[in-house]
Amino acid sequence: MKAGIEIVEITGPESSRAKVIFENEPIRNPIQPKDQIFNIAWQPAEEIRVAFAGIIDLDGDGLDNNEDFLRMLERQGVVVDEYLKLKPLEFIKRDGKGMSLRTKYLIIAPNPKLDGVPVGMNTPQAIQIAETIKFMSDIRSRAAQNGVQVIEANKFLAMIGFKLPKNPLPPQYGAGNYLDQVAPPPKKEGN
């Protein structure tokens, strides 16, 4: 991929004015007049349907930007059949059906890891990560059954022209943002 562009104005039936958002190698491999333009998430004669799961990190902080990613896809005309919401941990399915034979891609984030989390103990972090692993395994299995192509989130983002942060933090599946905090029972009076 040479560069990323954004269409800013439609000037005719087969022409547009574009703004260059970034160029990977402007000296060695500059943009040329006859370069082809691709967008994996847009086909003029086809409705693109996707599903996604895991931490889709757009800003490099290790936490999810899944709602922003969902809005970005929908603005581009992509139909999101299903996605994994991380708090509470559940699948959100379009029209109650979710991923199907019509779904083209499962965009999957890096798998959660139990590195650095005390596994032997039933800590909230270990439980959250283990549950997330189960959910992500489930959606991968259903994608295989439906013949849905699995693509890594960072690769998908690069292919649609999204510039990723240079040094992102690893996904923080055990972060407090994702833990379902249970309030302690109220104390009885006189104790």
Number of strands: 7
Gyration radius over CA = 20 Å
Q: Largest sheet, described in full? A: 5 strands, mixed
Average residue-wise pLDDT: 83
The secondary-structure class comes to alpha/beta
* Helix content, binned percent: 10-25%
> Widest sheet: strand order?
5-4-3-6-7
How large is the count of helical segments? 3
Estimate the strand proportion: 15-25%
The domain tally reads 2
Low-confidence stretches: 181-186
Distance between the termini: 67 Å
Q: What are the secondary-structure elements, in order, as H or E?
A: EEEHEEEHEH
Note the overall shape.
Answer: globular
How does this model look, in words?
The chain has 191 residues and is an alpha/beta fold. The chain has two domains: 37 residues, no CATH class; 140 residues, no CATH class. 21% of the residues lie in helices and 24% in strands. It contains three helices and seven strands. The chain has a five-stranded mixed beta sheet with strand order 5-4-3-6-7, with helices on both faces. It has a two-stranded antiparallel ribbon with strand order 1-2. About 3% of the residues have low confidence.
Chain-wise SSE layout:
Blueprint: E1 3-12, E2 15-23, E3 49-53, H1 66-75, E4 79-86, E5 89-93, E6 105-108, H2 124-146, E7 149-152, H3 153-159
Parallel strand pairs: 3-4, 3-6, 6-7
Antiparallel strand pairs: 1-2, 4-5
